[in-house]
Design brief:
mainly alpha, two-stranded antiparallel sheet, 237 residues, binds zinc ion, globular, single chain
């Protein structure tokens, strides 16, 4: 039996690298328009880093079924590269594929978080595919609990929370926009808005600065940016 990825996992793997092949010597686009007004053509594949079934390339018997079909065991590649890594496993070991994936996600984050991207892109929006719609329908939720209404309610609650936070006495009267830098990258500086757009792509972002220099303030500002730009709901814990 093959431990296949869920449709949502495949889409997430693709989106997190901007639908580009993760092989650094390929990096081709894997999505485009089909003939007509609405159709799309998808040429990429969510490939297994360790095989989906016993006897397959880089198979790891120690993994559970859940681990084998989890996003951490997948990498987005064009069809050609997906075939290539499975036919020459000596050349494409697990460690190399994980590095490709990590670098490709980093590239996608940097291109989203750059100031240039802020002027070029509209709000991020997640498109539901047929598998998502079928799954949602199976839940048989009342009509006012559809994704749009629920997201709207959560966004309103988040905006209220941020306003309450900013109304406390300790909130600085003059808040400035910080200068942020992505450590370990060429990117010299990124904006809060850029970070807000890219946050869904990253494996996680750590905010590092000395005590008392405004990390909490920055997080609240970031939450504001996330709410302004996307469908995502910011939660400050
Ligand atoms: Zn490729």
């Amino acid at each position: 039996m093959r431990d296949e990825f869920l449709a949502a996992t495949k889409r997430s793997l693709a989106m997190r690298v901007g639908y580009l092949c993760s092989n650094p010597s390929c990096r081709c686009s894997t999505v485009g328009p089909a003939h007509g007004e609405v159709g799309t053509v998808l040429l990429g594949k969510a490939a297994h880093i360790t095989a989906a079934a016993a006897g397959g390339p880089r198979y790891d018997p120690s993994l559970s079924m859940e681990a084998r079909r989890s996003p951490s065991n997948g990498i987005w590649l064009c069809s050609m590269c997906a075939d290539l890594i499975d036919r020459d496993t000596m050349r494409f070991p697990i460690e190399l594929l994980n590095k490709w994936k990590c670098d490709a996600v980093g590239d996608a984050l940097r291109s989203l978080a750059s100031p240039a991207a802020a002027t070029r892109q509209g709000p991020m929006r997640i498109q539901l595919d047929d598998a998502d719609k079928a799954w949602l329908q199976a839940l048989a939720l009342p009509p006012d609990n559809d994704i749009e209404s629920t997201t709207d309610r959560m966004r309103k609650a988040a905006v209220d929370d941020i306003t309450a936070f900013q109304d406390v006495r300790e909130w600085p009267p003059h808040v400035v926009t910080p200068n942020l830098r992505l450590l370990g990258t060429e990117t010299s500086s990124i904006t809060l808005d850029g970070l807000a757009r890219g946050i869904g792509t990253s494996e996680g972002v750590c905010l590092v600065s000395p005590p008392g220099t405004g990390k909490t303030t920055t997080l609240v500002q970031l939450a504001e940016s996330i709410l302004r730009f996307g469908e995502a709901v910011a939660v400050l814990v």
